[in-house]
């Protein structure tokens, strides 16, 4: 199954593959013809002592020509096979990356990032080895084996038939090695994936590791994983050391003894052609080298098959991101949001939201407050259609959320997270985010709107300043301001804010709060708030507790109600809920 799927990737390159196979056949023919050429010389000229200069020069020139032809064609076919393999793996890697882009966030919730990186890089690279080895080494050697056997049959049918005894012996060795190596290689690939996961986690959490002096513990855990990987590799080396070259060499010795014995018996009964004997032994010796090469490459091929299984498991993953349903193409014009009896569970067993219902009118700001785990982020995740909705309904402008195209949703809904993510690139590129419709003037206008223009122009190259990974060269507040500018450059109808001012200093926060008040004109804003002081002017505040809305109203109404919101406010303002 895996092999069929892999070779489907060859179909676009079947013409190039055909020429490579033709070159391979021609190179094999030239290589096999060498011993026949020498046999003819030995029997027709060397034995009867017809050794004039013209014959010697002719034999040498012919043998050299066959060798040159074989070398040139071998180079061409190897180059062709490697080029095809690179093309195939390039497409496979692109397909895997594209599939990852379409997967739902629930998949990433349960899949370590290091494991995905391992599949996209290490496993696809191993698949490349499969194509190179199968297309080049396997096919080349199999063709040579067939050609050599045909030549042996032409030289002596009885002796060649006797040599067929080696085929079941070699087949048995190959089957045994493949049977035992499959489990070993699957263990190796899993351990490589686990090591990549640990590396990714360690690098991402280096600050915490050093802050809590966890270097020794992390080193021990990594050493334990590396030791397990070492053990798996050693088991494979032991297996290969026993079943690869030593076993094939033993079979070759058996075949050599059989052939020499038969030649010896025949010499008692009549004439034995020295040329035939030379060509037969030469081809027999050269016949075993392809078997050895196939056995040596079999380990790499087995490793690649396991890697291909992991790659196709990812390609077959059906946990896709939610997409639109229906043929209509509605557009968001007002930004009215309505939740109707929404109940949601991430795992299908434990409900994180229960019967959530509320309405956010255009221009209104609706704030979500509550303790950790109350369901605030889940409401935003569903509104952004990051997760499929199983029960209830979400409408925008009276149209079900599922009816909107992804492009329309992402263009009209601006998301600002508590922990902003910046990409490697310039400041301008991080604000524009690859949208060709956003001009340079619009980028700078958005930056001025959120009070980011001032600090950007103080950077070494202003808007053209290159940012490192995750914008590490900027402060937390500066990164947050850039994420604000990124959102405002698209002029969305709906704003979704996840404690957007959490990493901004007090002075900058006041400026952003003023900008947010301006932005709310004609826009619907859904804001998660941990600091209640930032949402006192919200039009509607929803207080969540264990996945349910337990209170709703304005700040003054909820304070007067003296319920959960009142207690939270007193705790933050005075450190007491009394």
UniProtKB/TrEMBL annotation:
Which parts pass through the membrane?
57-76, 130-153, 159-177, 242-265
Single GO molecular function: ATP binding
Q: According to its record, how does it sit in the membrane?
A: Multi-pass membrane protein
Q: What is the name listed in the Swiss-Prot or TrEMBL entry for this protein?
A: ABC transporter ATP-binding protein
| UniProt cross-references to CDD domains, sorted A to Z | ABC_6TM_TmrA_like (cd18544), ABCC_Glucan_exporter_like (cd03254)
A Pfam family that this protein carries is ABC_membrane
Q: List each copy of the ABC transporter domain by range.
A: 337-571
Task: Give any Gene Ontology cellular component.
Answer: plasma membrane
- Domain ABC transmembrane type-1 spans what residues? 19-303
Its predominant location is membrane
**Tree of life domain:** Bacteria
Q: Does the keyword Membrane apply?
A: yes
């Amino acid at each position: 199954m895996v092999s069929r799927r892999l070779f489907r990737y060859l179909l676009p390159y079947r013409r190039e593959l055909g020429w490579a196979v033709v070159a391979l056949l021609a190179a094999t023919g030239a290589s096999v013809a060498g011993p026949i050429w020498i046999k003819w010389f030995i029997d027709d000229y060397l034995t009867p002592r017809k050794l004039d200069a013209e014959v010697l020069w002719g034999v040498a020139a012919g043998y050299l020509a066959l060798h040159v032809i074989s070398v040139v064609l071998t180079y061409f076919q190897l180059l062709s096979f490697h080029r095809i393999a690179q093309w195939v793996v390039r497409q496979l890697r692109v397909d895997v990356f594209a599939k990852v882009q379409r997967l739902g966030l629930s998949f990433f919730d349960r899949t370590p990032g290091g494991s995905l990186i391992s599949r996209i890089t290490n496993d696809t690279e191993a698949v490349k080895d499969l194509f190179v080895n199968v297309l080049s080494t396997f096919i080349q050697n199999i063709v040579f084996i067939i050609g050599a056997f045909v030549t042996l049959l032409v030289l002596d049918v009885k002796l060649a038939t006797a040599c067929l005894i080696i085929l079941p012996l070699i087949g048995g060795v190959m089957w045994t090695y493949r049977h035992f190596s499959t489990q070993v290689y699957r263990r190796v690939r899993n351990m490589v994936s686990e090591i990549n996961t640990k590396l990714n986690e360690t690098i991402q959490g280096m600050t915490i590791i050093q802050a809590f002096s966890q270097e020794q513990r992390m080193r021990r855990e990594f050493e334990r994983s590396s030791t397990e990987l070492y053990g798996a590799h050693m088991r494979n080396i032991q297996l290969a050391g026993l079943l690869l070259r030593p076993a094939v060499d033993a079979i070759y010795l058996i075949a050599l003894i059989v052939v020499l014995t038969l030649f010896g018996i025949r010499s008692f009964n009549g004439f034995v052609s020295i040329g035939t004997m030379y060509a037969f032994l030469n081809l027999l010796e050269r016949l075993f080298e392809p078997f050895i090469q196939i056995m040596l490459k079999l380990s790499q091929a087995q490793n690649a098959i396991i890697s291909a299984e992991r790659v196709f498991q990812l390609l077959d993953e059906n946990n896709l991101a939610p997409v639109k349903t229906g043929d209509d193409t509605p557009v968001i014009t007002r930004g009215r949001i309505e939740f109707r009896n929404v109940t949601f569970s991430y795992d299908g067993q434990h409900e994180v939201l229960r019967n959530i219902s509320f309405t956010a009118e255009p221009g209104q700001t609706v704030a979500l407050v509550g303790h950790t785990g109350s369901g605030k982020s889940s409401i935003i995740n569903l509104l952004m259609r990051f997760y499929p909705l199983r029960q209830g309904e979400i409408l925008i402008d009276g149209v079900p959320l599922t009816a909107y195209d992804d492009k329309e949703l992402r263009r009209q809904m601006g998301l600002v997270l508590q922990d902003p993510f910046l990409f490697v690139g310039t400041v301008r590129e991080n604000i524009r985010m690859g949208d060709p419709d956003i001009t340079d003037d619009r980028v700078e206008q958005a930056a001025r709107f959120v009070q980011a223009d001032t600090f950007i122009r103080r950077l070494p190259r202003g808007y053209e300043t290159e940012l490192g990974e995750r914008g590490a060269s900027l402060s937390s507040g500066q990164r947050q301001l850039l994420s604000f500018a990124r959102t405002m450059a698209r002029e969305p109808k709906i704003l979704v804010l996840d404690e957007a001012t959490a990493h901004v200093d007090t002075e900058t926060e006041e400026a952003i709060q003023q900008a947010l008040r301006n932005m709310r004109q004609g826009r619907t804003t859904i804001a998660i708030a941990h600091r209640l002081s930032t949402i006192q002017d919200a039009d509607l505040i929803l207080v969540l507790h264990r996945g349910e809305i337990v209170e709703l109203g304005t700040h003054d109404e909820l304070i007067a109600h003296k319920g959960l919101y009142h207690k939270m406010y007193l705790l933050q303002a005075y450190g007491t809920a009394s």
